[in-house]
Design brief:
The protein is built from 12 helices and 11 strands. It is an alpha+beta fold. The N and C termini lie far apart (64 Å).
Length: 346
């Protein structure tokens, strides 16, 4: 009798716990995932706005077809300017693809060596970065250096750095995340140092080199290295949930571009036309052929879908690092991919 009471108590407790756990289910993600798939990309963007994004832009480039441009929501919420596909956007870590290509070109030219170490290139930092004499340029490009990511420093978001040196300082004089080459650890510090190395090697800004060697040959006139080069009103506003600040005015030092320009670059990267002879073999041993980006106010996804021979770029201008905004963006993106694939199959 006593045993039956215990079992009944445990059963009731399990049911209550199960019901209680439903409180923690991210229903917004469930909703976004199970909603009927729309017939068009535009309808999916409109649904994305209903999920809480302020504005969205999508560019679709299917081989053999004219490119497609989509937008929904706000370009500038405060001034009620509707989103439009040709807006400039802060592409955040998608910038790393351009840096990796530039590095590849300089390696092929003999200006840089993938096997030289951080201590070789930055002797002034040798005592401030653990294992600097074992960290090669190759490891830095591949995020296998073990150098701490400056954004992971506990003070980074509490006391945002006001200069490039202050940013780097958040990664210096710290234990390595792992020994060089022994693991993978995504670190923005790697690419900040590579940018500095390119500047140091060339004697002029890496942005200029990227423009001359990558952007101009591809005819990309709407890709820029900094806010100083553009009309700020052309930049899509960026919002963080719970704040009124427009993050488009914050100069991150990363690139800005239209969705179309990113798409053209990504196709050139994947079909090899961005490279000169012998460069693609080097690049393929180093880095990836797609990327995402995340900054306060800006989320971006840039991917090539080989089976469909299709580039799909997605920008959205609402973030919340403590919420589900990134997951929602991925769900919307994957649904757009399905819509495009369904069109091909029909």
């Amino acid at each position: 009798m006593k045993e039956n009471k215990v079992k009944r108590f445990l059963r009731i407790g399990f049911i209550i716990a199960s019901i209680g756990s439903l409180y923690f289910v991210p229903w917004i993600l469930v909703k976004a995932w199970i909603m009927p798939l729309p017939d068009t990309v535009q309808e999916q963007l409109d649904e994305g706005i209903d999920l809480g994004f302020d504005g969205m832009i999508v560019y679709v480039d299917q081989a053999g077809k004219p490119p497609e441009f989509y937008a929904a929501g706000w370009h500038d919420r405060e001034n009620e300017i509707p989103a439009y596909p040709q807006a400039l956007f802060k592409i955040a870590s998608i910038t790393k693809l351009y840096i990796a290509v530039a590095t590849t070109k300089l390696v092929k030219e003999g200006c840089l060596s993938l096997d030289n170490t951080l201590a070789d290139y930055f002797p002034e930092l040798a005592d401030r970065i653990e294992y600097s004499d074992r960290i090669t340029l190759r490891m830095m490009v591949q995020h296998r250096s073990g150098i701490p990511n400056f954004v992971d420093h506990p003070d980074f978001w509490v006391k945002p750095p006001k200069s490039r040196q202050e940013t780097l300082d958040y990664a210096l004089d710290l234990p390595a995340d792992f020994e060089p080459g022994e693991d993978y650890g995504y670190s923005n510090t790697n690419y900040m140092l590579i940018e500095d190395l390119i500047d140091k090697t060339l004697g002029y800004p890496h942005q200029q080199y990227i423009k001359e060697e990558i952007l101009d040959p591809l005819g990309l006139k709407n890709t820029f290295g900094s806010l100083s080069e553009i009309d700020i009103e052309d930049v899509m506003s960026g919002y963080y949930v719970g704040t009124d600040e427009d993050f488009k005015y914050e100069d991150t030092g990363l690139m800005l571009s239209t969705a179309e320009d990113v798409g053209i670059f990504l196709r050139a990267l994947n079909d090899g036309s961005v490279f000169n002879d012998g460069e693609q073999e080097i690049y393929s041993s180093l880095y990836e052929y797609e990327h995402t980006g995340l900054l306060p106010g800006y989320q971006s996804i840039a991917k090539y879908h080989k089976k469909m021979d299709t580039i799909i770029i997605q920008f959205n201008n609402t973030t919340n690092f403590n919420g589900y905004d990134w997951n929602l963006a991925e769900i919307v993106y994957n649904r757009i991919v399905k819509i495009v694939r369904n069109r091909e199959d029909s």
